[in-house]
Amino acid sequence: MKLPPLYRIRAQLRRTILREWLVAYRFRGVTERDVLFTSFPKSGTTWLSFMLSDLIWSAGDRQEITDPRFMPGVGQQHLGECRLPNGGWLLRTHERYRPVCQKAIYVVRDGRDVAASMYFHVKRATGMEADFSEFLQPYLTGYFTGPGSWHDHVLGWLDSPCFARGDGLLVRYEDMKENVERELQRCAEFLQIETTLERIQRAAKAGSFETMQKTEQRSQLIPHREKGEPIPFVRKGITGDWQNHFSERDLKRFEAVAWPAMERLGYADSNAADAMGSESAGPSRSERTTLSAPPRQEARSQ
Ligand code: A3P
């Protein structure tokens, strides 16, 4: 697969102990009052963080598409201006679970849609010319992402002491698509933020696909510009896009490694059903039963 030499070097470096040290260094400032806002990349992180910044801090039009003033990354607390009512930070990260984490919101999305979304991100970032099948094999080993593979990331967080204690909140992209206000209410309760229906509705509106796309287009803060091109966080925003890219063989390769995570999250029976019921084809998600079935109890303990 043709990738720029610089990108290859970075991919190699990601697998060395140097990265572990760097991540540990960034996490050294995390305290027990902080809540980690965590996800595997391409799971809808930007969407939910945008809405939460509006809900909690009335960020409104002031916020950029990713804005460290409201939700700094781990290690970027010096850029943050807004804290939670308990004095802690709401800190963004894509890292795997680390024991310092006491409380976390974990945003998750069907791993197949994550793979499709990541494909377009890498293509744009690197100018990669590979087709989806060619991309999938290294992707499944975690080649393109700092925190490793999607399935290890998901299971690492769900099996963490943080979730076992009931201090983890799982928010699914598909559930946000189905009823975003309900998911914002769950987040507010988890964070012990007093709110009103009106504020929730306002935050949901602020995070609509169209509004976020406009915000991104006028944004000065588009973080990845390796090829000089802006890389949108707001791209297509649908469920089931994987069907437009996975061949049967790709699906088998994906399932061979990621099925336990898919099953755990309640995505497991959605294979055939998704082909019928995603936004890209057929009836709406709310008409389906497979993906609205709750995942394992501890994963949705809040
Ligand atoms: P697609 O590439 O499938 O369109 P992250 O922020 O974790 O990188 O996730 C990016 C994904 O979230 C992209 O998915 C993007 O389009 C989607 N997304 C961003 N804003 C959204 C919104 N307001 N509504 C629905 N999906 C959104």
Whole-number count of domains: 1
Question: What does the largest sheet look like?
Answer: 4 strands, parallel
The number of distinct helices, counting runs of at least 4 residues, comes to 13
Write down the overall mean pLDDT.
87
CATH class: Alpha Beta
Shape: globular
What is the CA-based Rg, rounded? Answer: 18 Å
Helix content: 40-55%
**What ligands are attached or bound here?**
adenosine-3'-5'-diphosphate
- How are helices and strands ordered from N to C? HHEHEEHHHHEHHHHHH
CATH architecture: 3-Layer(aba) Sandwich
CATH superfamily: P-loop containing nucleotide triphosphate hydrolases
Name the assembly state.
single chain
Please count the beta strands (DSSP E, at least 2 residues each): 4
Summarize the structure.
With 302 residues, the protein is of the alpha/beta class.
Features:
302 residues, binds adenosine-3'-5'-diphosphate, Rossmann fold, single chain, 6% strand
Describe the structure.
The chain is α/β, with parallel strands linked by helices. The protein has one domain (5-300): Rossmann fold (3-Layer(aba) Sandwich). It contains 13 helices and four strands. It has helices spanning 5-13, 17-27, 45-57, 111-126, 132-140, 150-158, 161-164, 173-178, 180-191, 197-206, 209-218, 248-264, 270-277; strands spanning 35-39, 90-93, 104-108, 168-172. Strands 2-1-3-4 form a four-stranded parallel beta sheet, with helices on both faces. Helix 3 (45-57) crosses helix 10 (197-206) and helix 6 runs parallel beside helix 12 (248-264). The longest helix has 17 residues, at 248-264. The radius of gyration is 18 Å and the shape is globular. The protein binds adenosine-3'-5'-diphosphate (A3P).
